[in-house]
Amino acid sequence: MKSALCVQKSNVRYFLRLWIGVEIFFTCKTGVAVCTDMYAFEQGRSALYHFASGENILENKKNALQYYRISANHGFSEAQCFLGFMYEKGFGVVKNKNKAMMWYKKAAMQENSPAQFALGEIYSNKCSILYNMKEALFWFEKAAENDFIPAQSILGTMYARGYGVLRNNEKALFWLKKAAEFSDADAQEVLGFMYEMGFGEQQDFSQAARWYKKAAEWEHAQAQYRLAWLYFKGHGVIQDKKQAKILFEQSANNGFAKAQYRLGWFYSDGHIVNQDEKQAQIWFEKAAQQAHVKAEYQVGLRYASGCGVIKNESEAIKWFEKAANHGHASAQYKLGYCYAMGMGVSQSNVKAMMWYKKAAESDHTYAQYRLGEMYVVGMGVVQDDSKAFLYFNQAAKKGFAKAQYWLGYMHFKGYGTTKNLTQAIFWYEKAATFGHQDAQCKLGDIYANGDGVSKNKTLALTWYRKAADRDNVWAQCSIGDMYLNGDGVPKNKNLALAWYKKAAVRQDIAAQFRIISMYPKQHNEIQNDFLEKFLKTAKKGLSRVFPHNV
Predict the structure, then answer these.
(1) Rg (CA), the chain
(2) Beta-carbon contacts of residue 396 (< 8 Å; ≥ 6 apart)
(3) Number of other CB atoms surrounding residue 535 within 10 Å
(4) How far apart are CA 91 and CA 48, in angstroms?
(5) Average confidence (pLDDT) per 10 residues, the chain, 550 residues
(6) Selecting from 1.25.40.10, 1.10.10.10, 3.20.20.70, 3.40.50.300, what CATH number does the domain 1-147 have?
(7) Where are the alpha helices (H) located in 326-384, listed in sequence order?
């Protein structure tokens, strides 16, 4: 970690570079640098420079402050600006935001553009009690009108992305082009993005690539990333996945989390690089360490499954929690599931419910369904059919078949809502269309028994058959019953036996019982085998002869 002194020295060097560039531009423009006490100012700047170089630190701090005060009190705006900087950063003086603002404003009123820019930055800081975007915009515009390139860049970005102002593509392009022409990499990147997306100008991938390239030459990580995508897709440039790979890697190595996350997926999928799950894990973790939420979730999944890393459920929980606390709905759901199942944590239905609720608030379908399940049985909460119905309804409306089945069941029984057979059939059919076997069986039962509809054995057989073809034992046994009794189909003992056998070999008690019942002992060659299976199952304590999953 950098020491406070290193941070101070870094700040000073940055400000010196910034000001030296401005002074050169100002001198070239006017041919003269006006100053009421140039000697004092130069002595102050010399002291500041020597401090930044690590020479005579205490003495140079004191000298810088002394000379800047002399020059500032004589009204020299550049010295006033530097004094503001010293009070803002606590360099050579105790940090004092009020004094920093006072000196910045004195300089800004004399059209000192770095001071105007500094005021804009202070007012635009959301963490500051001085946060005021109206004031920030005022001072950024002042500095930009005085040809201060960083202000032009940030003002263009604000208008382009709607940061603190209404989005205005015309103003964004105006300021970004000014800053970009003076090689401001941030402005070049945002300008490229506007051309890529067609904001304010006709979409032009070639122009986008041009500006991204200019910014990328300055090692601008986000520009490298966006340029990589253009090469990957062949937009505005000749498609070149090798070049795309180089740019993704440059961006990732420059610390851009999105590029690191994307490289993780490339290594995982074997896209533009040889598949390597260990490398994928490295890049996912690099992005996750920068609080890239999707990367945090992926790292959690990979520790949970042991993909590219040694399986570690505790480590998985750690990353799921990070992503969940950053609002990632799938991570919140996964964390809820882990608590429900006791995976990597002590089992806790209460905590499972808490995380499911957080995910459900973000409209996570699975979480809504799980909440419905927990309320319907009273797991981790007081049993409440009304709340179960509410959550099942939310998930069902988004096409989740299990929730649609439950909604049909609750309408059929009148649990948590008024009994409504029409709605029950509606939701059962929705779930059945998605292949939900229990819903298909329920529809078979409804049409076979005429529950809320006219009896229709043909439709009953159709729905039973759909489930039976997917090895659903209830449906197989029901079809066997229809053939055994000639219920809606020609009576056929052999077909009945064939369907019972399908269910019986899957350990279905009802089918085994029916086969035994069909044949007297003296004529049943297969009875003993099924009787043995039946007795084994019965010994396990299964009392229901006709099981049916609800």
Answers:
(1) 36
(2) 403, 404, 406, 407, 427, 430
(3) 10
(4) 10
(5) 36 44 38 43 50 45 69 84 88 88 95 95 91 95 96 96 93 96 96 95 95 97 98 97 97 98 97 95 98 98 96 97 98 97 95 97 97 94 96 97 97 96 96 96 95 92 96 94 94 93 88 78 52 53 37
(6) 1.25.40.10
(7) 329-341, 349-361, 365-377
